[in-house]
Design goal:
heterodimer; A: mainly alpha; MetI-like fold; two-stranded antiparallel sheet; 2 strands; 77% helix; 1% strand; B: 280 residues; alpha/beta; Rossmann fold; 10 strands
Amino acid sequence: MRRFKHHVFRFATGACVVLACGVLVLIVLAIAMRGLPAISWQFFTEQIRLVGADGGIFYNLVGTFILIGTAFIVSAPIAVGLALVHGVYLRERRHRERLTLLLYLLNGVPSILFGLLGLIVFVKFFGLGKSWLSGGVLLGMLILPTVTIALIERIASLPGKYVEAAAGLGLTQSQIIWSVILPQSLSGLVTGSLLGLAHAAGETAPIMFTATIFAGATFPHAIKESPVLSLPYHIFILAQDSFDPAVGAKLWGTALTLLGLVLLLSLVALPLRLKIHEEAHHG
Amino acid sequence: MAESTDPFLGAKGVASHSTDVRFVLETRGLTVRAGGRDLLRAVNLSIAPQQVFGIIGPSGAGKSTLLKCLNRLIELTPGLRVSGDVRFHQESIYAANMDVDSLRARIGILFQQPVVFPKSILQNVIFGTRHLGKVPRKEWPDVAERALREAALWDEVKDRLRESALLLSVGQQQRLCLARTLAVDPEVILMDEPTSALDPKSTEAIEELILQFKQRRTIVLVTHNLAQARRVTDHVACIAVHDGAGQLIDCAPGDELLGDAQGDEVTAYFESRKRSKPEP
């Protein structure tokens, strides 16, 4: 009887793995089958024509890269600062736990609320209008918890002996931060940022009121009133119009592109993360 | 030893290299508490310059804790409270105006396990020198060579200074750590069982170096190897747990204490050592 239970349990857990893989495979297959016919060199290099029924997504790709690039530049230094506060300056455990709780709370804020916040603060209060900068900053805030927590975990896993050795040579705390802690936790910043950016690249809600439009934008020419096109918003608009077969093909092509971009960012992050675990064991 | 320019030592630091000051380091009523428990209680030590001062005692008696109090490295361990005093050239190192970082550059430390950074051999040797920023960049290679020669490692690594330090043997890594400490030119070197992770040959190499160093530096050596204490120390302090806290049991010139054991604790300690592990 006990052996039977054991086998049932193993089967059930195995089924969970199959389910998870199945969902991923289904999404990839469904999107790839519909999207592949639309993919061509011109699709990536031409701009949108005929309200999405023809042409390509060049400026949507450009816009998405500008948005996530800005999100990286905004989130990375703040994440480093927060992780140093957590790992170096806060000496009491309960203060560190409060900071972690704050990050998880921030992580739980629905992205549509980030969009509304951006509308009030950047678009209206700072008068930026729809601007790539507003969207980039909002996405940066959205991924800040992900990046910070990856960095915090990396700093926490640094062997204390390195800090002790550096302190024993007479280095000041800031010299230790620059010479030991930051160089050795750089991979945590890169991994966390890649995972965060993979998340940010697909977000629609934070940028739809603040940074992105459907058509008519190219490279940003200024900061104020300078929106960009983007992949997720393109999908959002086309999906409402997808009864037209020509639009449908472009929709799935765009979806496949976004999926490819996000999977690529995650896949680059994975080997880096494994490498970190290896170092932690040998260090 | 370079002439001191450290602000907290000033003229006195220079004077200390002559013989008119009897002790380099002194502890007065040094007590370390963790939670409600004393790890170390009321330890009084006086360490004279240019000698090897040994600290012996059973595991868990607080030898390493005592050592780390001598350059305030103990403060990196959370949850400990240090009271009493430690004086370096008659100045309290726990005083509010003490520059801890300069202090640690003057009182270097070598750990039980070699701690090499995942960098090249050269980068490891000059790690302290370059970040302290007192020596111009063009002199770094000279600093590295001098330190590696002093640690008797130069001949083994001079052709592969750019290789990763992690490729060295454990014995070589420990001498590399010693070279890294020497490159900062400390007056005192604290050593926390520096040979316990090493093979006999590497141990012999480190012991020879210790004996050479005392011409110019003061060594405080924690060891649980009595044979080693006999071979290299001039003065020995024995720390053992007494009334639930690590306390100083005896302190005397090495040949006196180790040749003719006195006092119950020291005897008991020697007896237990002899039973568990015969002396070579």
